[in-house]
Amino acid sequence: MTEHATPMRGWGAEALRLMLVTDDALAGGRPLEEIVAAAVQGGVSCVQLREKHLGTRAFVARGRALKALLAPRRVPLVINDRVDVALACGADGVHLGQSDMAVEDARRLLPPAVFIGWSVETLDDVRRAAALPLDYLGTSPVFATTTKLDAAPAWGLDGLRAVRAATALPLVAIGGLHAGNAAQVLAHGADGIAVVSAICSAADPEAAARELALAVAEGAR
Ligand SMILES: Cc1ncc(COP(=O)(O)OP(=O)(O)O)c(N)n1
Ligand SMILES: Cc1ncsc1CCOP(=O)(O)O
Ligand SMILES: [Mg+2]
């Protein structure tokens, strides 16, 4: 595989159809592994481990545990923010934001098989993405959300359409998404959706993931 092989360095862009982004604080005391396993059973195609408060060792340990859970199921593990943690736990991808490590530096440090996603908050970010070694973009956020309090202003559906027109990279929409608006978001140019609360806060994460997977499959038709 060449260094900038894409889509998704061999996983295929369909792996981005339904991404679960974890949030321990929304799990209501349930073990995160249990929620992830249920979500995969329900049909999530990718899992992003997002830990804002864990120490480095605990973050790596959790990454390794999730990697062991996901690898036999052929579901890629993405690490949010931390290239070092991704390397240590053998993750399949890294998601970086505008304040995280520069994409070029991450690309130099990561093995060629590890894919990189990047949050875009403005059309200027989208234009800059064309010159970066990226595998997908996260349009962040599409709708208002209470899950990420420091999120940029929402793109809205018209904004999402403008992002689609400005890039050929796979687009993952995130922010305020659920089974009721997933199809609409795909119709405005997203290749997939990422959700936090729609699965992590659900009483039945497997059923929630199944409903989302169905909505995404119907929206993609
Ligand atoms: C798929 C996806 N898109 C966007 C984000 C947001 O990343 P970032 O802007 O770095 O914010 P934090 O998630 O680190 O708070 C994401 N995580 N995933
Ligand atoms: C991590 C992140 N990045 C942009 S919005 C967001 C949170 C999305 O959470 P939810 O799916 O609960 O709206
Ligand atoms: Mg980040």
UniProtKB/TrEMBL annotation:
4-amino-2-methyl-5-(diphosphooxymethyl)pyrimidine binds at residues 48-52, 80, 119, 148. Residues 18-199 form the Thiamine phosphate synthase/TenI domain. It catalyses: 2-[(2R,5Z)-2-carboxy-4-methylthiazol-5(2H)-ylidene]ethyl phosphate + 4-amino-2-methyl-5-(diphosphooxymethyl)pyrimidine + 2 H(+) = thiamine phosphate + CO2 + diphosphate; 2-(2-carboxy-4-methylthiazol-5-yl)ethyl phosphate + 4-amino-2-methyl-5-(diphosphooxymethyl)pyrimidine + 2 H(+) = thiamine phosphate + CO2 + diphosphate; 4-methyl-5-(2-phosphooxyethyl)-thiazole + 4-amino-2-methyl-5-(diphosphooxymethyl)pyrimidine + H(+) = thiamine phosphate + diphosphate. Its EC number is 2.5.1.3. It holds the Pfam family TMP-TENI. Condenses 4-methyl-5-(beta-hydroxyethyl)thiazole monophosphate (THZ-P) and 2-methyl-4-amino-5-hydroxymethyl pyrimidine pyrophosphate (HMP-PP) to form thiamine monophosphate (TMP). NCBIfam families: thiE. This is Thiamine-phosphate synthase. The gene is thiE.
